[in-house]
Each structure stands twice: as C-alpha cells, then as structure tokens.
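Write out the bound-state structure for NBY.
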Amino acid sequence: MSMGFDKETFKKSVLFNMKNVFRKTVDEATKEQMYQAVAYAVKDVIIDEWIATHKEYEKQDVKTLYYLSMEFLMGRALGNSIISFMAQPDVKEVLEELGFDLNAIEDQEPDPALGNGGLGRLAACFLDSLATLGYPAYGCGIRYRYGMFKQKIENGYQVEIPDDWLKNGYPFEIRRAEYATEVKFGGYVKVVREDGKERFVQEGYQSVLAVPYDMPIIGYGNNVVNTLRIWDAQAINTFSLDSFDKGDYQKAVEQENLAKTIVEVLYPNDNHYAGKELRLKQQYFFISASVQRAVKKYMENHDDIHKFYEKNVFQLNDTHPTVAVPELMRILLDDYGLSWDEAWEITTKTCAYTNHTIMSEALEKWPIELFSRLLPRIYQIVEEINRRFQQKISQMYPGNQDKVRKMAIVYDGQVRMANLAIVGGFSVNGVARLHTEILKNQELKDFYEMMPEKFNNKTNGITQRRFLLHGNPLLSEWVTKKIGNEWITNLPHIHRLAVYADDPKCQQEFMDIKYQNKVRLARYIKEHNGIEVDPRSIFDVQVKRLHEYKRQLMNILHVMYLYNQLKDNPNLDMVPRTFIFGAKAAAGYRRAKLTIKLINSVAEVINNDRSIGGKIKVVFIEDYKVSNAEIIFAAADVSEQISTASKEASGTGNMKFMLNGALTLGTMDGANVEIVEEVGAENAFIFGLTSDEVIRYEREGGYDPMEIFNNNYEIRRVLMQLINGYYSPQDPELFRDIYNSLLNTMSSDRADTYFILKDLPSYGEAQKRIDQAYRDESWWAKAAILNVANSGKFTSDRTILEYVRDIWHLEKVNVEL
Ligand code: NBY
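---
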C-alpha cells in the first residue's frame, strides 16, 4: 500500500470535498457529485507525491523526456488511479459505507478521449509505464475542448455527437496560469542588424496565450506522479478600448477567434492526412508552447544552453509534432543568439521520431504557401535546413537528382514532415519488427542507406495495469492466486501460468471466468444496444477504428457467406457464434461509414431470422472507447486482426486481446508476427497473403479480382447480395460503392486495393478451423491460457525500457515520502 493512503482520512476527504464543492452531505448527493467528490479525494491522496516527485527530479537534476503528441487517449482516470495507489478494496469499502457502488461511481466519469485510436492510446500506455518505472517524463499535448466524437447509431448509420467532456469540469486537472506562454502566427520576418549581426524578428503577427493544464500520471505503488501537460488557448489582449482606438479592432477580434478555434476540436481522422490550416495551427500552438517551456525550465537551473540535449529529449509521436525541430532551432538562433551549427547540433541531439504508418495517404505534406504564411520564421528555418541537407545529398550522391527528389524536405511546393523529422533528429523508429523492416527496405530506403545509424525498432506494448488489473478483475485475481502479483509490474512473470495450461481444473476455472466476463459483456450489449446475445456462443470480436486496410468489410462478407450456408442448410453443424464489431469512422470517410451501415444492415436481417436457430448473431457496439474496450477484451474468445499484410504498422488491440486470453485470428502483419512467435502458430489462426506477397502484387499493379468473382460461386453470391437489395430492400443501390470498390469498374483506385477477395477463401478456412477447435474445450482453454502466459513481451514497460536504453537514456528516480 502506498504511504499516502489511509482509509479513514480518505473517507473524511470525500465528505469534506462533497461539502466544499457541492455544499451537500453525502446522502443528498447524486452519483455524479459523488464521483467528483471521490476524484477530489483521490487528488488529495496523490498531491503530496506529485509535489515530491517533481522536487526529487529537480534535486537530482534529471534528464527529462518530453513525449510530444497531438493525442493522448487516456480513458477514465478514477479507477486507474485508485488501483495505482493500491487502495481499491479500501475505497470500495468506504463507498459502500457511504451507500455507493464503486463501479457505478467510476461510470460517471466521462472518458477523456483526446485521441483517435492506436497512436493516442499508445501515448497513454507509455505515460503509465514511465511513471510506474520511475522515469522523469512529461506528456505534452492539446486540451481539446471537444475530444473524439461520441458515436450514435441511428437507422444503422453512424451519427457524430460532440464530446463535451469538460461540461461538468474535470476534477483531476490543475490550471497552471503561471506557465502561460505566447505563441505567434503569421505576419512577416524583419531583419534587424545589431553590432554586425543579423537578428530575425517576427512582426505584424497574431498571437494567442497558451495556458497549461496538468493532469497527474500515477505510477503503480511507487509514489511517483508524473505530469500530462495539455495546453489551452486564450486570447492575449482581450480586446480593449486601447486597441479599438488604435484601429486594431479587427485584429483584436481575430485574435479572440483564433484562441477560441485553435483548441476547439480533435481532428477525427486516423491514418489519414487532411491538410487543414487549422490543424497546422494546432501543431505549432502546442509545440511552440511546450518547447519554449522546456527551454525556460532548463535555463532556470543551468547556465549553458549548449548542453540542453544532455538534460532533455523530445520524442515526436509521428510527424504531427515535427515543427518542434525548427521551433527549437528558432529559439536557439533568435532568442539565444547561437550560430546555425551550434543550434543544429543541439536540436538534432534532442529530437527523435517515431513512425506509425506506411499508408501513403497519411503522409503529412504542407503546401509552402500555407506553411510560410502561417509560420514565416519557421519556414525560413525549414528552407535553410533543406538547403543544407540537399547539399549533403549532392556530396554523397554527386549528380544523383533522383536522391534529391526523393529525400528533399521542401519539394514540389510542399514541406514533407517525415523527411524533416528524419533529418532533424538522431533516431527514427518503427513500432513493430516487420514495420521497421518495411521502413528500412522500402518506404524510407534512401534515408536508411544514407543514415543507417538512426534507424531502430521499438515494438509497441500496452499497460497490463489498465487492460488486465483494472479491466478484468476476475482473471486478474485468478492469475495472482496462481502465481503471485509480480506480473503487475513485471509482465514476463506471467509465463509461470504456462504450467497450469494442461491442468483440467485450471482450464475449467479459466473458462468459467471467461464465461462470467461474457455475461458481463452480454449485459452491457443488452443495456446499450438492446440485443440479446448468448454467452455460450463464441465471442468473435473486431474492435478498432474503421479503415479499409483493417478490413472490417472482409469480416462482414464472411458473415454474409456463413448466413448463406445456414439458409441453404439450417442444420449446418456449427458452434453458435456472436460476431461483435465496434468502430468509429472518420466523419468524412464515406466508404467507412457505408461499411458501418452494411454491418448494421446484415445484423438486422440475421438477428431477426428465426430460421437459423440463433447460430449467428451480429452486434455493432455503439461508441467504442477505452472504457467499454476494457469490458470487451475481457470477454473475447477470438481476436480479429485481419489487416492487409504490410498495412498495420503494429496494432495494440491485438496485444490487449492476447493478455485477456483471446486467440488471434490474423494475418502476418504488424505485431501479429511477434505475437505468433511468442505464443506459437499452433495457438493462433493465421491466414492470408504475406507482406512480401502484397508488396510484390502492388509493384506489379495489383491482381485481378474478377478472376475470383468468375470462378468462386460463393463469393459471387455474397457480392451480388450487395447490389440486389438483399440487405437493403428499400434501396438496392445502397452498397453499390462497396461492390465497385472490390471489383471495380469505375473508381480511380485499383480494384480491391486491400486484397479482400484474394484473402477471403483462406480467411474462411481459418474460420472453419476455429469452429472445429472450439468444440474441444480443453484444447481451447489450454491455448487461451498459453496466450495469457506468453503475453509478457507486450507490456509497454518493456517498450519503455527499450526506448530508455536506446534513445532516451533516462535515469530511474526513487521517490520517498
Ligand atoms: O498507431 C496507429 C497504427 O495504425 C497502429 O498500427 C499502431 O499500433 C499505432 C501505435 O503505434 N496509428 C494511428 O493510430 N494513427 C492515427 O491515429 C493518426 C491520427 C491522425 C493522423 C494520422 C494518424 N493525421 O495525419 O491527422
């Protein structure tokens, strides 16, 4: 138990906060008020540790990581915090004594959803591991007024509802007005000559005030509390008579608007670059504020800016924070008067870049017209970085214009952010072994040849504290009963479970727990979707963002195929199956939204057909998010990880399922490769083209889906049902676009870009193997236990230790109270 916690003190604190915040006693309080009072009481518990942690960092003059990310998909803080100071049973008791149920209180918290999907959630897992391992780190991001939209399904269609997560205030955050910082946009650059030297000054600009809010990141049982710092924007000189008089009325209003719009909303695209001006403003806004603050903080306790990199490291979470490179250069050149070479050495020793995708539509490229207008001084610096880099290319590859064309930072009227991130830092990493190899050998081949020493792999991980300890209390207790609790901070220890995999009693216990978790999910589905599902059926789950490369479409086409088989033969011998989907589509991604409609249309027909004896059910869970994800992973039998090989950089959902004892049905893509390596191919269901095969086809201009359409009757039958009104009698043309995308005909893309028809037969075979395998309960239980037992590699603690060893070089800190 953490030293800061005492049950009676905690109870008093809840009562005190209830009175102080709401002017109420506990028996008058609503559940929402109770949640707030408990959250404030939690803050009371950790506040001294939070202060002590930062005192200790200062005292030891530690090197600090700044994890720069547009997204932090934190999920609820309350339950996780209570677990971190190891007082869950006590808090539960206190609440019971006050007449409340802890789960119901946790349910009152809005999910802070300042992220889209994998990339944002990875950032959140990393912060958890950093604090638990005791490493000095800040998460730096944006305090979006509206996070990831809430998804409603109406008539089978996705409807987006604004996520007003700050509506009732967020009790865990603290506003730090004392660190407010000005960020400048637009205007022009003036050259000032001072004692023989040129200085560059931005004039005629608009600016906003960046105001940070801090959230505590609580380490597990170690008194360490790190900080997630997210920036809000405020108008700088709220418009005064003064500026009105000077005729600056227009500008004052504009600045007011800029502040309001800049942090208004998270862009809901994942793996897709949209090129919106406001997005670039968001990027520079939080980066300028974070970098300015990091430099100031460093200079408060040091006198030599040249050694900045010895005490600071910036990790760029994808290219979105890449303006950190020219922004640090700007501060060093313009504010500290360093020479270019001095500034460049510091910058390139401070910055490191993580790549999360090879999808070409995700590559960030800003038109120089827009970039230079918004960030005139930054653009000059980028031009100079580019000029010097092009010179270097020419030296290394004399006369090779092709190399310049491919690697230049500014080219074809665009600033290429990935190239800038690679050149401006000392490290480039991919997020799974296969992904990093593809970067080195295909996408970033030229850079790898020129600077191989920068490239390294860091296979992603997840925090077992949230995704097992908090999300799956039954399994978590069972594991601890069998092997002790060391797995909580040392996941590879969970391998000790392997010896129980063959034990019939343990198998039974494991399957009972899985069953209870399925009952819990069934209850959730009944409550939220009004659909009855049978917890004795196989729970086959695909939850993740909706994207064509992730191939939810292949999954539902297979369901349509199975349904046809059942209609032909209602006595078909199959284990009842519940196909569970959960996915948000980017608001402007039409085909993804149509796929959601298709899934719901198929569900509607199948779930209401009594003739198939309930052998298949299809459920689309509304509003997939971190809080219901925890319930879903715990209840899954089958984990669908079926992306087109080479497209999913890593995946992290795959790891969460494995940790909860689901078997992977997947392609050899991303981290699936390493999952199979750990658990053994015999304990997973692998199918489909390999990444080499996909890449070869792509080089040759694709394959011919029409051949499959011609020769495979079952596939043809399914595809025809997309256009004959089978699932949309009122509008037979509804799914025409999906049909066309597979076969092609008119669209500009290659037909079946993601090899869905190509992989469908082998996917169907793998599904059959699952049906057979599940009938042998003992085999299944053994394989499931072995999945849990072999998940040790996939803790984000391991990932962080590798980043620390190879990139960040941080020292562990002990915090005593
Ligand atoms: O990052 C995901 C990858 O798809 C997944 O394979 C990997 O496991 C995960 C963590 O490394 N990428 C991802 O989630 N990307 C985004 O969410 C994203 C968001 C916005 C933009 C691009 C990508 N954007 O350009 O606006």
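---
The longest strand covers residues 206-218.
Residues 31-60 form the longest helix (30 residues).
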